[in-house]
Amino acid sequence: MAGADGPRETPNGCRAVTYPLIVIPFVVATVVVTALSARRPRFRARMVWSTAAAVVLILLTAVFDNVMIAAGLFTYPEEHLSGIRIGLAPLEDFAYPLCAAFLVPAVATLLEKPNR
To answer: Where are the membrane-spanning stretches (predicted)?
Structure first.
């Protein structure tokens, strides 16, 4: 991601990998696989349940990431973050539970043998 002064670079002049860039493939894979599962039975119900699961996982992530960061269990280098936080937790941390809530059921659906 580009900072206010241009692309972020490491001390050796290479572009720095940022957490928002790491998240992109997971989000793209989730969208593609979920879309591929749209023609399977019970898609609407699966989306409702995935949304409910996402809400719960995001709330748990908000609570536990903030607790763990406040306790000093881990930190993030500021230069690798988007700068947007929910409490102490960087926004990027919330992509993984969101993706899991939609990607796992979609993959499971695609792996099911169709009833004939």
So the answer is: 17-36, 48-74, 94-111
Give the global pTM.
0.78
CA distance 21 to 5: 18
| CB distance 98 to 74 below 8 Å | no
Contacts of 112 (CB under 8 A, 6+ apart): 40
What's the chain look like in SS3?
Answer: CEECCEECECCCCCECCCHHHHHHHHHHHHHHHHHHHHHCCCHHHHHHHHHHHHHHHHHHHHHHHHHHHHCCCCCCCHHHCCCCEECCEEHHHHHHHHHHHHHHHHHHHHHCCCCC
